[in-house]
Write a structure and sequence with these properties.
Number of domains: 2
CATH topology of the largest domain: Beta-lactamase
Bound molecules: zinc ion
Strand content: 15-25%
CATH superfamily of the largest domain: DD-peptidase/beta-lactamase superfamily
Helix content: 25-40%
CATH architecture of the largest domain: 3-Layer(aba) Sandwich
Mean pLDDT: 91
Number of helices: 16
Shape: elongated
Radius of gyration: 24 Å
CATH class of the largest domain: Alpha Beta
Number of strands: 21
Length: about 450
């Protein structure tokens, strides 16, 4: 008994502060790695123990959660929740007398269960809707920051990781091991007009009286910016510029912005900054500065240029707008229980930062509502739920010509926002305009119907 007490109290506290998985893995000699479940108790990862004591980590959903749950392999390491929750999974809060009995019998204790915020049904719906596209989907609750869904494709099956390893690491074109949701660095395209609009609102108290007559393109010096499909949008205010996603109007707005203030707004929205959350991520980059030329300013204002962002980061910005300006700290672990389900600890929602005032959030929400009601996101209107959002098409150059990413960020139940969604599909041909928004619609339909 003295040894058990020593082990569970003294040694556990020594290990609790160790950031090194290798050291934590010493626990694996005494503890069977615990389960990871979704929020409804569906098992996403478990350890099977053969009669001879051999332990195999098993992922019942195959590739469905490959990036967010990740993998745990004695030779290949750990990623995703398997990595960041390693300590919890190798800690046993099984009942004391049971642990003593195990100790006498030379048996291992069962590790704790990590109950995530993920929803297997919604994850499956997003996975199916993304289909064969490369890209990512992130869905979170607006008012809590709980992450319900995180899909990245191409993916991999963690059950056959060892045999697939060489292939997975040599496929540079598809990079199946990359979690595009958090580590994808994409041109934001027109979803970045959210940032530009906020910067313009902050610098022009009379922004409501902004007007611009779109002729389908704008030329400044030797640079010409065209609207999508060279559409002539005509006379617009800020709201209709946003709803129509008018490139010419936003290039014009960019030319009227104070760049230092624009940088400040981007920074307030966490560009070039650390992001909250538990998984590994890539920082987003906003590259304009006082030396940027006219072309770069016009391009950046409409979401092209040097700016890069992850789908996860765009979900955070959208969540703050939906939530009245306050970003709730996103999280993936709802609670930790012992293996019988007795709660050890629970995470509660908490605010991370105020990204904008409630007035600014309300104004952006109104503009995003216009996108769905009368603009480029109208495919989402007339459904069983209300939605607001912003579409985007991001051009990027490849040796074989112009290709585009398709974006959508938005939220549902506009009067009392419920789900926040961020979708990107990579490398579609020129007709990609509405691809991401229609994928978002398919996912949300499955949730609400
Ligand atoms: Zn236009």
């Amino acid at each position: 008994m003295a040894y058990v007490i020593y082990f569970t109290i003294v040694r556990a506290s020594t290990f609790v502060n160790s950031p090194y998985n290798q050291r934590q893995d010493a626990f694996a000699e005494d503890v069977i790695r615990g389960n990871i479940t979704d929020r409804n108790g569906n098992v996403l990862a478990q350890t099977n123990v053969a009669d001879d004591g051999t332990e195999t980590r098993y992922y019942p959903y195959g590739s469905l959660f490959s990036h967010v749950v990740g993998y745990s392999d004695p030779d290949l390491g750990k990623t995703g929740l398997e990595s960041v929750e390693n300590f919890e999974l190798l800690t046993s809060n099984a009942f004391f007398m049971e642990k003593i009995q195990n100790e006498f019998n030379g048996a291992k204790d069962q590790g704790d269960t990590v109950v995530t915020t993920l929803d297997a049904d919604l994850q499956q719906a997003a996975y199916n809707a993304l289909g064969d596209n490369k890209g990512a989907v992130v869905i979170m609750e607006a008012d809590t920051g709980k992450i319900l869904t995180m899909v990245s494709k191409p993916d991999f099956d963690p059950n056959s990781l060892a045999s697939d390893w060489d292939y997975l690491n040599s496929d540079d074109e598809n990079s199946p091991l990359l979690n595009r949701a958090t580590n994808g660095s994409y041109a934001p395209g027109s979803v970045f007009k959210i940032v530009t609009t906020l910067a313009y609102m902050r610098q022009n108290s009379n922004y409501a009286s902004y007007s611009y007559d779109c002729q389908g393109s704008i030329t400044q010096g030797d640079v010409t910016i065209r609207c999508f499909d060279s559409t002539v949008h005509g006379l617009e205010d800020l709201r209709s510029s946003f709803a129509n996603s008018c490139n010419s109007s936003f290039a014009n707005i960019g030319l009227n912005l104070d760049i230092s203030g624009y940088q400040d707004t981007a920074k307030d929205l966490l560009f070039n900054s650390e992001l909250p959350g538990v998984l590994d991520y890539t920082k987003s980059s906003f590259a304009l500065d006082k030396n940027s030329d006219t072309a770069e300013i016009m391009m950046t204002a409409m979401g092209q240029g040097e700016t890069t962002v992850s789908p996860y980061h765009m979900a955070l910005i959208t969540q703050a707008i939906a939530n009245g300006g306050t970003l709730m700290e996103p999280y993936l672990v709802d609670s930790v229980t012992n293996y019988t389900g007795t709660e050890v600890r629970r995470n509660v929602p908490k605010s991370y930062a105020r990204l904008m005032t409630s007035e600014e959030a309300a104004q952006l929400k109104d503009y995003m509502t216009a996108v769905v009601n009368e603009g480029t996101g109208s495919v989402l209107s007339g459904r069983s739920y209300t939605a607001a959002g912003k579409t985007g098409t991001a051009e990027y150059s490849l040796v074989d010509g112009e290709r585009t990413h398709s974006w959508f960020v938005g939220f549902t139940n506009v009067d009392n926002p419920e789900l926040v969604i961020s979708v990107i599909t990579e490398g579609s041909d020129g007709s990609a305009g509405g691809k991401a928004v229609s994928i978002a619609g398919t996912i949300l339909d499955s949730y609400y119907n």
